[in-house]
Amino acid sequence: MKKISIISVAFLLLASFAAKAEENLDKYTYRIKLGENIGGTLPIPFPAEIRKIVSFSPIFSPYVSVEGTKWFSRNWGITAGLALDVKGMKAGADVLYFNTVLAIGNEGSFEGAYSGYCLMKPKNIYVTVPFQAAYRFNNKWDIGFGGYFSVLGKGGFAGIVEGGYMRSTPPNSTQPNSLGEIMDITTATFDFAEEIQKIDVGLMVSGNYTFWRNFGAFAHFSFGLIPIFPKDFHGVSDYRMTNTYGCLGLSYKL
Fold first, then answer.
1. What is the pTM of this model?
2. Which of 34, 154, 192, 231 could pair with 125 as two cysteines, CB 3.0-4.6 Å apart?
3. Are 133 and 145 in contact (CB under 8 A)?
4. Which domains does the chain show, CATH number per domain?
5. What is the secondary structure of 6-19 as a DSSP string?
6. 45: cis peptide before it, omega within 30°?
7. 250 C-beta neighbours (distance < 10 Å), count
């Protein structure tokens, strides 16, 4: 009888602790997040015209958001928020017959197949709404998976080319190629900011760990499903360039 009583008491204590833990889990969670986007606005699939990546470096690309989660059960909830979302990089590459439009000094703009060195500097500032299904393991760990919707606030996609040449569109052809007339290029520039699409939609996965009181660390990965340029724009060949970025930062639970 004593053994049964001890087991009964232990069971009641465990049930009490479990109920207490359930009560301690918030039904609503609100966080401020401050992080840095690291990644690139990249062509997918990677084109053969880009022969060699010479350099790659991130630029200052902050991510600042306020997010809230409604928990429907101990583990599952829905997260939504509002973020200032800057995505940018700087990359240099050697290219071969890269179809583009270049501005050469006061001579105007020229379209053709460029070969040589190219430095690209995209930087786009978005207002982003992340929306995710949320799962929490305990008071410290939670993860999310879903997507995002972004509206472009200010777009940028500029760069320079140096020490190369361009082939113009040959007769009886609709596209520049390796058979066109050669124009040597010492240096030239391009700026396609006005061509960037105003909307970006993609997938997102995230995780947050609370390491001390209300302070935590978070990470997320976002992958754009919409190219940043429209289909009828040929300034960056016909590449499907999308935003592919990871983000690391700190969070604070309100």
1. 0.85
2. 154
3. yes
4. 27-253 (2.40.160)
5. HHHHHHHHHHHHHH
6. yes
7. 13
3-class SS at 141? strand
Burial-class residue 199 by CB neighbours within 10 Å (0-12, 13-18, 19+): exposed
CA gap 248, 33 in Å, rounded? 10
Task: List the chain pLDDT tens, one digit each, 254 residues.
Answer: 444 455 554 455 444 444 444 445 789 999 999 999 999 998 888 888 899 999 999 999 999 999 999 999 999 999 999 999 999 999 999 999 888 888 877 777 788 889 999 999 999 999 999 999 999 999 999 999 999 999 999 999 999 999 999 887 655 555 655 566 788 889 999 999 999 999 999 999 999 999 999 999 999 999 999 999 998 887 887 788 999 999 999 999 99
Give yes or no for a contact between 179 and 173, defined as CB atoms under 8 angstroms apart: yes
Closest CA to 247 of 218, 208, 211: 218
Name the token pair of 202: 């993609």
For residue 41, what are the β-bridge partners?
Answer: 243
**Hey, is 72 helix, strand or coil?**
coil
**How far is it between the farthest Cα atoms of the chain?**
101
Which two structure tokens, joined as six digits, stand for 149?
Answer: 């919707």
